[in-house]
Specification:
Oligomer: single chain
Mean pLDDT: 79
Number of strands: 5
Structural class: alpha+beta
Low-confidence stretches: 180-197, 210-218
Helix content: 55-70%
Largest sheet: 5 strands, antiparallel
Radius of gyration: 42 Å
């Protein structure tokens, strides 16, 4: 070949090399896109597997998913191999088969309090999960987490009829071998196909939202108190003690104020007419704070104005402690209640952080117990303290009014008796 031929051959080789490089870059992009697709598929399947409750093949699915993610992370050429694609397809097939059938099997769940429990589990597709704790005699459902949160939670608050149907379905499914080996047949549990096992009415909710929303705001008073933890015991004691003290003060102050003004005016009128014995008799029959102070003034009418003033002051000093009895104790109880609520908040948050330490922050339902304890005790302390404070203020005002009425009528009688003595002298 001449020089021109060699240059033409070299130019052809260069063009071929550029074309090969272009094909190589396109192949790399395709492999990278495939890798991203595999990673995204593995992530989505992982979210689905982690969101669904326990099943008879959930452990195999999680193990296969971990292997896929590890192979994708350790891939040196950032390209997904045929083995990874096959593994993802195998996982998809497992989930598809699971969604088409029903199963009854033994497994472990974590209840609402965060405790592991060995139970019998009934699964219908991927939209209905129930458990039966034969030792505790309890039946529960897996419902979607409230307030549009991800995941699910186990709810044991089901009606007796539903619990009986779930129990019968589990027993029939176990006898017929439904779900053994992970090859469960659809319809054997829910009656989609007529089989010898029978048909059962289960609380079936495809969206898994209705049961969660219905039970979310229907906590009973006793359940709320139990969720508050041990701090609710002294708070309950405060409620009972404050109730007894308030009831006693209401009865006492009502008796002391009933008819006291009318009796005091009658005594003053009798004194103005010089009927001192009748005035004393009226005060003895009434026997209230006001009339007792007026009788003390009346008993010293012959000793002068100064002696009557001293008798009034002495009687008031004796009556005020009786009027204010237990009021300081009621005020103390009103102040202690929110402090106990704050203590419950602290202990609840301690439990929450303990749960985070043990299980991490990826499972918020495990922290619900501690947070619920913190909030319930705080609310309980405030709910108890506010009405006690209001009643204490009302009782204190009523006692002060009785003292003011006593001083007012005593001053009137003192002026009346003092004028009478001045006229005699």
């Amino acid at each position: 070949l001449g020089l021109a031929g060699k240059e033409a051959l070299l130019e052809a080789k260069r063009a071929e090399r550029a074309e090969l490089r272009q094909e190589q870059r396109q192949a790399d992009r395709q492999k990278s896109d495939t890798q991203l697709m595999l990673v995204d598929a593995a992530r989505k399947l992982g979210d689905l597997v982690e969101t669904l409750p326990i099943s008879e093949t959930r452990g195999q699915q999680q193990k296969l998913l971990r292997r896929i993610k590890m192979e994708l992370e350790n891939s040196s050429d950032k390209a997904g191999g045929a083995g990874q694609v096959e593994a993802l397809l195998e996982l998809v097939e497992m989930l598809w088969r699971e969604s088409q059938g029903a199963a009854v099997f033994e497994g472990e769940i974590r209840d609402g309090d965060g405790y592991e429990r060995a139970v019998d589990i009934l699964r219908v597709g991927q939209v209905f999960f129930a458990y039966r704790d034969r030792a505790a005699g309890q039946v529960g459902l897996a419902v979607a987490a409230p307030e549009n949160q991800q995941g699910y939670r186990w709810q044991s608050d089901v009606s007796q009829v539903m619990a009986e149907q779930i129990d019968l379905a589990m027993t029939a499914g176990r006898i017929s071998g439904v779900g053994s080996g992970g090859d469960s047949k659809g319809g054997a549990i829910v009656g989609a196909k007529r089989v010898a096992v029978g048909e059962f009415e289960l609380p079936f909710d495809v969206t898994q939202q209705m049961a969660a929303e219905q039970s979310y705001g229907s906590a009973k008073l006793l359940e709320m108190m139990v969720s508050g933890g041990p701090v609710m015991i002294p708070l309950l004691a405060i409620v009972l003690l404050a109730g007894v003290l308030i009831f006693e003060r209401l009865i006492f102050l009502s008796r002391q104020s009933h008819g006291c003004c009318g009796a005091a005016e009658a005594m003053i009128e009798a004194c103005s007419k010089g009927e001192f014995e009748r005035a004393d008799e009226l005060g003895r029959k009434s026997s209230t704070v006001v009339t007792r102070i007026l009788r003390a003034c009346l008993s010293r009418r012959g000793a002068g104005t100064s002696a009557m003033e001293d008798a009034i002051q002495e009687a008031i000093l004796h009556e005020v402690p009786r009027l204010e009895r237990f009021l300081s104790g009621i005020a103390i109880l009103a102040g202690v209640a929110p402090l106990l609520g704050l203590l419950g908040t602290v202990t609840g948050m301690i439990n929450t952080f303990n749960a985070i330490t043990v299980f991490g922050s990826g499972q918020p339902r495990l922290m619900a117990g501690g947070i619920s304890e913190a909030l319930v005790t705080t609310a309980a302390g405030l709910v108890i303290a506010i009405p006690i404070l209001l009643v204490h203020g009302w009782l204190s005002g009523r006692a002060e009014r009785l003292v003011a009425d006593s001083e007012r009528y005593a001053a009137t009688m003192l002026n009346l008796l003092g004028t009478e003595q001045g006229g005699k002298s």
